[in-house]
Amino acid sequence: MTESTQAQAQEVSRLLGIILKQVVQVVKNGLRELGWWIHEKVTLLSWAFLRIFDKSTVDGVILVDWVLEQRPFTPEAKTWLRTFVRADVGNLGKQTGGGWFYPALGRVFCYTGQHEAMLHELAHAWYQPRKPRLRKQMLAATLRAAGDTTVRYQGACKLAHGYVYGVGRWDGLMDDENHWEMFAGFASYCMGNLEVLPPYLRKLYVGLFYDWRAS
Q: I want to staple 129 with a disulfide (CB 3.0 to 4.6 A). Which of 40, 48, 105, 163 is the partner?
């Protein structure tokens, strides 16, 4: 084999290696997308099935409807949340806050009629079937926001700093990679007003909240 032929063979081998790596990556991406799709569909099917036997309470419907109509949720999000999520409220007349989201049941519970608490739990519900797809983006955006000094977004960035580095004796959320609580936390911080979030965080709420910049 001449030196020229050998060089050509090496170049062909190099190109084939690159192509093979690209093919492997495409397959991996395809399998990952399939996994995300299966997770989302199985979650929604189970929630839809459970709704046959377990309805929202009257107070739950009242609070969910108020929050969805008074905050800038997209029409898609309103329909989705009303279709798949069931809600309950302990005492609609109080405003002390607090609540839970039960992922396996697609159910949110708020101790009181506080709007911020219900929006927070609804954000959890929205995020649940989308967690695998958004996990890395949520963690990266929160870490970036923790070091962002843009005055316009100082409130959101201060919140992110607490999530990443903790506050006082609280270690924050980053050690456990609690990205679902980060998502819900920023949602209830902005209460649907995406203007107060930096763009790299704001984009993660596309579909949930209305963004006038995209209109």
A: 40
